[in-house]
Amino acid sequence: MKPLKDLLVISIEQAVAAPFCTMRLAESGARVIKIERKDGDFARNYDQIESKDSSYFIWLNQGKESLILDLKNKIDKKLLNKLLEKADVFVLSLAPGSLKKLNLELNALAKKFPNLIICNISGFSNETTAREEKAYDLLIQAEAGLISVSGAPDSPGRIGISIVDIGTGMTAHAAILNALLKRNLTGKGEVLNIAMFDVAAEWMTVPFLQSNYSGMDTQPVGLRHPTIAPYGAHTTKDRKTIIIAIQNEREWERFCEIILFDRKVTKNPYFCNNLQRVKNRDKLESKIDDVVNNLNSKDFKLKLKQAKIAFAQVRNTSELKLHEGFRERQLFGSNGKNVNAPISAFEQPPFNLQRKAPILGEHSILIRKEFLED
How many other CB atoms sit within 10 Å of the CB of residue 1? Predict the structure, then answer.
């Protein structure tokens, strides 16, 4: 039994953040009606994989129903109101100023539909002067400081996926579930405002505190941990990049004994505790590289396992599916063609293989008949 069975979600959504949120609701059994303009969710055309949908769109829109609406049209606006009368959740992700232009002010909606949970996803909080600014994932990564602590020294970089969009969708999903639990107790809906910048800024709490109270900005450190050592990448004889992670002094002692063959290193004043190891990281890594550079990756991994040290091999995207922990599922494009993708960590098998990404406007006629003719 899906926990959100019989829940109706209406979503004016596009791109990634809101679709990720409603994808999670759909995975739990909710009926999700995705409202699109006549030219569709622009994420449909980000790229094109074998299913003829974009990789983003096929991932984020399985099982949703597509309804084309012109929210400036009286009949379509009437249909939206009919949908909201029966809906449990209304998710919006519109450009700054659009809520007012389309007469979708949040407080007015809450008054008109008191049982409805309204989740507004925006770039910046309505409580700030930045509220009218446009916001996209890379721009928020920049403004919130994520880029400044990512990448390599002297070469900051974008985090390689749409992490702010995804994180905002996850945050919105959690907020909606909280609101549903509250509604079960109070019988009332509520308005939720989730801003991409707020989500990203909260993730920056640790480097923010470190910088705010040290007076120094946190710098990107590449494949290293900024405040723990040894915790970073080393290259083996066969040119594999292995990241090791040592979390405490017991692990450090085992590492010195089994990998470095030298317990005395733990007494060296340069390496005797984590603070000193971070301060003298270059010396530390040089000492480790003297050993690791002469081991092939198989032997190095065996030694790390023997010492009970956590490690990971840096893989490229084509190697992801080769990992022994990788699990696969099928996604279905709007044309019915299936593609293989990583399993959802949220939805557990068996999956409903009848679900697919919708054709633009695929369900418009049936939804109009259902909600306008009842």
Answer: 4
